[in-house]
Amino acid sequence: MNAEQARQVDATLRRLGIPGVVAPEDPENAAGAWRVYDGADPAIRKDITADVLAAFVAKFREANPEPPGKPQAGPMRGFIIPPEDN
To answer: Chain centroid to CA 30: how far?
Structure first.
């Protein structure tokens, strides 16, 4: 993610109450990749991006539960065959 996306992720995490510090992987290169860490200090921080993604999915599912037996919504493969014009 870039700096603008990082700001959006940070705001979303705060709104959902998910802890984490969104920061660039390389503190000297804000134009590079960004991750979510457990703290701001680059010397001792731990990358928790995967844990935060899991927490986000859990919050989303909590707010939007699927009824039992309902197929999961999402992209599907298949063909769309238009009707024949007679």
So the answer is: 20
Q: How far apart are CA 42 and CA 28, in angstroms?
A: 11
Question: Cα–Cα distances in Å, from 83 out to 29, 76, 80?
Answer: 55, 20, 9
Angle at 2 between CA 11 and CA 56, to 5 degrees: 40
Residue 67 structure tokens: 């009824």
How far apart are the C-alpha atoms of 40 and 66, rounded to whole Å? 36
The structure's pTM equals 0.67
pLDDT in tens, 15-37: 989 999 999 999 898 888 899 99
